[in-house]
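Hello,

Our lab assistant flagged a job as stuck in the queue for most of the afternoon. It eventually completed. Since we weren't sure the result was trustworthy after the delay, we are filing this so someone can double-check. Below is the sequence as submitted and the structure that was eventually returned. Let us know if re-running is recommended.
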Amino acid sequence: MPKDLPTIIFDLGGVYFTDGTDSAITTISERYSVDRQVVTEVFFGEIGTKYRENKISIQEFWRIAKTIWKLENEPTDTLINIWHEGYIPIDGVCKIIKQLKSDGFELLFFSGSTKERVDYLENKYHFLQYFDSGIFSFMVGIRKSTLTVYHYLLEIASNNSENCIYIDNHEKYLVPARQLGMRTILFTTSENLCMTLKDWEIVSKSFF
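-- returned structure --
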């Protein structure tokens, strides 16, 4: 890859895909009358962190989750499907990524997705073909909020940090990237992402 082409790194949930966890929190809370904060704490608290870091199994995660939510009699597969099905590719981002790949950019993913969710989404959407490589939290046992995992990411990238662009829908995950010298984009919409990439002369046209 020519050095003048930056490495572009994409978060998955909330950037490439819709925010399926937020969707699952809403569905579980409303369908089963479980307080939204209680549902959120399972996904983003200690138990969810251990699961994403591959420190507890999927069976253990859902056993604890169902106990906390008092849904012991609900089939685990039903809850898994609610979570996984909330992730849907964002059409505009897919168009941008396909163009970037065609133009020869190195594309990496950087995600806190669980192995089971990745397997589900890859089987359904075959999204990994658009990326050269990347890091999932379960691969390294560290969440995205830890600076160390950003160093791992840079070890994969062909470029140094100053020639990397990281795109995420959460500002807190952009902070460590900037600390290491990367340019960052806070994702809001496909249109705004395309506009920023066009302003930076990464893409030459708008897709919208």
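-- support follow-up --
The delay was a queue issue, not a problem with the job. The result is valid. Residues 23 and 92 are 20 Å apart (CA to CA). Residues 20-85 form one domain.
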